[in-house]
Write a structure and sequence with these properties.
By secondary structure, the chain is mainly beta. The chain is built from four helices and 18 strands. It has two domains: 208 residues, no CATH class; 36 residues, no CATH class. The strands form five sheets. Strands 1, 2, 16, 17 and 18 form a five-stranded antiparallel sheet that branches. The two termini are 18 Å apart.
Length: 263
C-alpha cells in the first residue's frame, strides 16, 4: 500500500507539471488472476471495475437471446483467494468506478477527451449479380423495352434496393487513435479503454489488433508487452495496477493483472 501511495503521489506531481510521460511508465508482465469458464458463466463481458481498496474486481456479463433481449449477470473476484462469486446486483462501488473509468474525458483533465463521430453508410446485403437482366440490360426485363443495354428492369431494381440497408456507425477516437467502432448497435464506452485515476492524464486502450496501449494527454504512447486480446482494461484507484480480460480460449476468459510504475 505504501508503494501504491507513493506511485500515485509521484504520478499526480507529474500530472501537475504537464502530465506524466507514457513512454516512461513501466509495466510488469501480465499475471493471470483467474480463469472464467464460459460454459458456466454465460454471455459476453460488459463491465470490469475495481473496488476502492483494490481487493476485489467486479465482472459483468451480458447474454442476449435470439430476440436481442439482454440478461445481465454479476460476479465479484476476490483477489486474495482468486475465487469468482456470483452476486445479485452490481455493487455500488462498481457503479461509481465505472462512471469515471468509462467517461468521455479523463478524470480531472477535461481537455483529454474522447471524440465521438457518427456517420451513415449504405451497405449492400449481397453482391450485385454478375448475370441476368441486372448485368445485361436485357430489353425483355419487366419495365424495359428501350433496347439492349437499357439497364435495370423494375423487378430487379426493387430487388437490388431491398438488398441495400443504411448502417449507422459510431466511432470513438482519442488523439487520433481508434478506440472502437459500433455498427447499428449501442456504443459501450469503457469496453476498449480505461482512464487512470483523477488528475493523472493517462489512459490504456486496446488497439485494433487487441494489444494494450498506454497513452498520455500529449499523445505519447507505448505498447505494454505481453497483453493480448484485451477487453475492458481497467486501472485501479491507486494507479498501481491494470486489470483486463482476455479471451484465452474458445470457452475461457482470463482476468489478468499488471503492476505499473513511473520510472
Amino acid at each position: 500500500m505504501v508503494f501504491a501511495t507513493c506511485l500515485l503521489v509521484s504520478l499526480a506531481q507529474a500530472a501537475g507539471a504537464g502530465g506524466p510521460d507514457a513512454t516512461r511508465v513501466t509495466a510488469a508482465p501480465p499475471s493471470p488472476a483467474i480463469e472464467i469458464d464460459r460454459g458456466k458463466v454465460k454471455g459476453e463481458p460488459a463491465r470490469l471495475a475495481w473496488s476502492p481498496d483494490q481487493t476485489q474486481v467486479y465482472v459483468q456479463m451480458v447474454e442476449r437471446d435470439r430476440k436481442g433481449v439482454a440478461k445481465t449477470s454479476h460476479f465479484v473476484v476476490t483477489l486474495a483467494d482468486r475465487k469468482l462469486k456470483r452476486v445479485d446486483a452490481e455493487p455500488q462501488w462498481a457503479a461509481r468506478y465505472w462512471a469515471w473509468k468509462s467517461a468521455q474525458a479523463a478524470p480531472g483533465v477535461p481537455a483529454f477527451k474522447v471524440a465521438v463521430d457518427f456517420r451513415e453508410e449504405l451497405v449492400k446485403a449481397t453482391a450485385t449479380p454478375l448475370g441476368g437482366n441486372l448485368a445485361r440490360g436485357d430489353p425483355g426485363a419487366s419495365g424495359g423495352g428501350a433496347g439492349a443495354g437499357a439497364g435495370l428492369g423494375v423487378d430487379e431494381a426493387q430487388a437490388a434496393a431491398n438488398q441495400t440497408q443504411r448502417v449507422g456507425i459510431y466511432t470513438l477516437r482519442l488523439k487520433g487513435e481508434l478506440l472502437g467502432e459500433w455498427k447499428n448497435e449501442a456504443v459501450v464506452p469503457g469496453l476498449t479503454f480505461g482512464w487512470a485515476p483523477v488528475g493523472l492524464g493517462l489512459v490504456v486502450f486496446a488497439s485494433a489488433s487487441g494489444d494494450l496501449v498506454l497513452m498520455d494527454e500529449q499523445g505519447r504512447k507505448q505498447e505494454l508487452a505481453g497483453a493480448r486480446d484485451v477487453v475492458l482494461p481497467a486501472w485501479s484507484d491507486d494507479g498501481a495496477r491494470i486489470a483486463y480480460l482476455s479471451k484465452s480460449g474458445r470457452k475461457t476468459l482470463t482476468l489478468y493483472l499488471m503492476d505499473v510504475a513511473r520510472s
